Amino acid sequence: MRVITTIKEMQAEIKKLKSQSKSIGFVPTMGFLHEGHLTLLNKARIENDSVVLSIFVNPLQFGPTEDFSTYPRDFARDQSLAECEGVDIIFYPSVEEMYPHSSSVRVIVQDRTDVMCGKSRPGHFDGVATVLTKLFTIVMPTRAYFGIKDAQQVAVVEGLISDFNFPIELIAVDIVREVDGLAKSSRNVNLLPEERSEAVVLYKSLTAAKNAIEGGERNPQTIKNLVSGIIHSETQGQIDYVEIYSYPQLKEIENLEGTCIIALAVKFSKVRLIDNIIITVRQEIGGEK
Amino acid sequence: MRVITTIKEMQAEIKKLKSQSKSIGFVPTMGFLHEGHLTLLNKARIENDSVVLSIFVNPLQFGPTEDFSTYPRDFARDQSLAECEGVDIIFYPSVEEMYPHSSSVRVIVQDRTDVMCGKSRPGHFDGVATVLTKLFTIVMPTRAYFGIKDAQQVAVVEGLISDFNFPIELIAVDIVREVDGLAKSSRNVNLLPEERSEAVVLYKSLTAAKNAIEGGERNPQTIKNLVSGIIHSETQGQIDYVEIYSYPQLKEIENLEGTCIIALAVKFSKVRLIDNIIITVRQEIGGEK
Known about the structure:
The structure is a homodimer.
Chain A: E1 2-4, H1 7-19, E2 24-29, H2 35-47, E3 50-55, H3 75-84, E4 89-91, H4 95-98, E5 105-109, H5 124-139, E6 143-147, H6 151-163, E7 169-173, H7 193-198, H8 200-214, H9 220-234, E8 238-246, E9 258-267, E10 272-282, E11 285-288
Parallel strand pairs in A: 1-4, 2-3, 2-6, 3-4, 6-7
Antiparallel strand pairs in A: 8-9, 9-10, 10-11
Helix pairs in contact in A: 5-6, 8-9
């Protein structure tokens, strides 16, 4: 496994791989790897000749009041984990390497950002799209891997790849869940014991929604009420949002049809958890995508 | 010579060329080719294994009051000219092919646009940068060719390539001039006979500026006054601007040092002409870059 810190060296390496017609699987991260990242790396390892992991805490995607400087970093640990997953190259540039001077161009995401978590993070997805544009032109991957837990980010990346014509296959990897259904997250350790038991209600409410839709329910508001009702009745956690949109367009819908997302965020005493389910509704037959 | 109209087919062709390690010279245009374009194609032909010409009148770079629908188009003529210059592929997509739906992302140029011609065309360079981002990911050229006559566009493209890390060499091709020094332009035919004689003053004033700088003058305002004075005294044409900046950053400078541009625009009765000269000032020795 090689660690590359300069764009120039990375592009030379990629040129070499391309000339050998090697497929490249790319997992872009901000480091401090957790089980979700390892799932992405594992899938990338299976599906490609070469696997590139990038570790870059991107200042552009942090708001002025957000935690860029205190964001957790542990490169030695990440390096060991990457080695175990069979990563070929870690791309680990400094902020100065990625943004050597004030940029004259940047990417604006003009859609898909005014809903869900995007509402409370203005500019966040512009920063994500700008750094990914850079990383995509540097790494030129065949496939790029993202966790569907952050479904809004996946929707934005889908738009970026499609609108800018990157010849990249976007692989959205399913949510990894605990045995009881709670979506895995490094934040789960911040749940109080009683909250940890209650938190299973997030997935339970989404499963109930899926069942209702499979049973023929097509009204988004009815489904939202169902989900909210279950959460209210089974936890002290406060609902931040329960939303339903077309996916990946993230547009309001009047009826559940085509591919839709049911997404939610619930605040517990020390932590806010998110979860979602994406369902494709075909005529009278529904099924999880 | 092949004419390709779909992005999918173009990307398949480029993939093939890349796997054969062929270098690709790219000349992006809006068609209605003139001598300037042919100079770019000729240079691209000499320096690369394959030459790709794109012809696409990009609606994004026209303002609401500008002439998108009446912009001149003559594909049959362009095709003949391209054939003569040894072009391998013309990429000729429709607007629907390039923008099949409302885009969720676009590129913003946040620098280098508030000077020279950019002042009067808000949003123009955002449209240029967005379509070039798409064309660069589609064509993946080794080298991209632009005429330095549109020096501000070259500066914006330099920023785009550098900031987004496109592995592309930007080739800025010198201004082609008539025997008397007037920069070639399809607009020159709109000069009245008397204006045509006078128009030589544009280049004459820039040459005088160059001579003054080579003689040791370092004050931008003195040079601007010199240029304006010559233009005023030798033509009825009205000065739109005479500006001096660092190049390609297009920042105001207090002293002429490093690489600088002297750019001007002059309005004649039916046409506005632009011209420029780029000079690199080293210590006491000056020379055109």
